[in-house]
What we know:
By secondary structure, this protein is an all-alpha fold. The protein has a single domain, classed as Orthogonal Bundle (Farnesyl Diphosphate Synthase). It has 14 helices and no strands. Helix 6 (125-146) runs antiparallel to helix 8 and helix 8 (159-173) runs antiparallel to helix 9 (178-201). The longest helix has 30 residues, at 275-304.
Amino acid sequence: MSDTAHSTFSGNRSGRLRLSLLAYFHLTKPRVIELLLITTLPAMILAEQGFPSVELVVAVLIGGALAAGGANTMNCWIERDRDRIMARTRHRPLPSGDINPPRALIFGLTLEVLAFALLWSAANLLAALLALSATVFYIFVYTIWLKPRTAQNIVIGGAAGAVPALVGWAAVTGSLALPAWILFAIVFVWTPPHFWALAMRYRDDYAAAEIPMLPVVRGTEVAVRHILIYSFVVAGVSFALPFSIFMTPFYPVAAGILGAAFIYYAVRLYRDSSPERAIKLFTVSNIYLALLFAAVAIDALLVGN
C-alpha cells in the first residue's frame, strides 16, 4: 500500500471512529445530563455548608453523568421506534441507524454499572443506590409504563429527574434530611410545566407517535392553565428551603426574583399559547432552575464563610 493510500485509509478510519464516538455521546442526551448535574453540585455544597473535597465532587459528578447517560441511552433504545416517527427525534443515533440497537443497550447498561461502582467507592452505598433507583424509575415506571398510557406521565415520572439532588446530599452526609427532600420537591414540581411547554411546541410530533402528553389529549388551553398553576407551585416550594436549614437573606431574595420571572413568562404563555411562546417558557424554565440552584450553592458558601 502506498503512503498516500495508507494515509487516506487511516484518515477514513479515524473519521469513522470520531463519528461513532460522537453518536454514542449523543445517545446519552448530554443536554439532559447537564441539567441533572446542575442540581447535584448545589445539593452537595448545601449539605457541606461549604465546598466539599474536589475529589468527591469530581467523582459524584462523573458518576451522576454516567448514571444519567446510561438511563438516557436505555430510554433511546426503548423508544427508537417512536423516535423514528417524531421529526424532533428521528435524527437521533438509533432511528438514523448510526448505532446498532443491541450495542446501544450494552452501552447503556455498562454506563450504569460504572456509575454504581464509582459512586459506591468514591461516596457511599446510599448515593449509588439512589442513582440506580432513578434509572430504574425512569426506565420502567416512566418510559415503559406511564409515558405511553397517561397524560400524567411527566407529573409522576418527573421524580426520576429530581433524584440527583438526593444523590448529591447523600454523597456528602451518607444520609437524607429535610433540605434534600425540599430540593427534590423543587425539581419534581418544576418538571411538569417545563416539559409541557416543550410538548406544546412539538404537539404534532407527540400526537403522531401516539404519546398522550397533556397538550395532545387535553388541548393547549388546559395545558397552559396547568403550566400557570404549576409556576406558582414551583415558586412557593422554593421558599420552603430556608425553613429547613439556616440560610442568609440572599437565597430567599434570589428565589423571589426568579419565581416572579417564571410566573411572568407563564402568564405570557397563558395569554398567548403559540408554539414560539411555549419554547420561550421552556428555555426560561431551564435558566430558572440553573439560577435557583446556583443561589442555593452561593448561599451555602456564604453561610460557610
